[in-house]
Each structure stands twice: as structure tokens, then as C-alpha cells.
TrEMBL record:
NCBIfam families: YheV family putative zinc ribbon protein. This is Cytoplasmic protein.
Length: 66
């Protein structure tokens, strides 16, 4: 099944500063935003994974088993 990507109206890429170039989709319960111009990607783990992190700790990353 193809992944449906949605553009984020008015959003600016933090890397290349291009407006209206960010597309978003969800993959394995992770939100992914990618600039279609420069390829810069941002990922955010789902809410359930973030809730397991204690407030005062710093997290380098959340890893999912294959």
C-alpha cells in the first residue's frame, strides 16, 4: 500500500528555509516530516513511547526492534 504524504501549508524548512516544501507521513507509529526540496527529515516517536521517558532525563533516541 503506498504511503500517503500530506503537505504542511505555510511551514518553512529549518534547513533550507523554503516555504511550503514540507511533506508529512506516518511510518511505524513515527511521524516523519521531509523537505521535498533539500531532503531534510525530522522524526517524532509516537506519544506512547514519549510517555515512557521520565521528566528529568535526557533522551538521545528511542530505538525500535526490527
Amino acid at each position: 500500500m503506498p504511503v500517503r504524504k500530506r503537505f504542511i501549508a505555510g511551514a518553512v524548512c529549518p534547513e533550507c528555509q523554503t516555504r511550503d516544501s514540507l511533506a508529512m507521513w506516518r511510518e511505524n507509529n513515527v511521524d516523519i516530516v521531509e523537505c521535498v526540496k533539500c531532503g531534510h527529515q525530522m522524526r517524532e516517536a509516537d506519544k506512547q513511547a514519549r510517555e515512557h521517558v521520565r521528566e528529568q532525563e535526557q533522551v538521545i533516541g528511542i530505538f525500535h526492534p526490527d
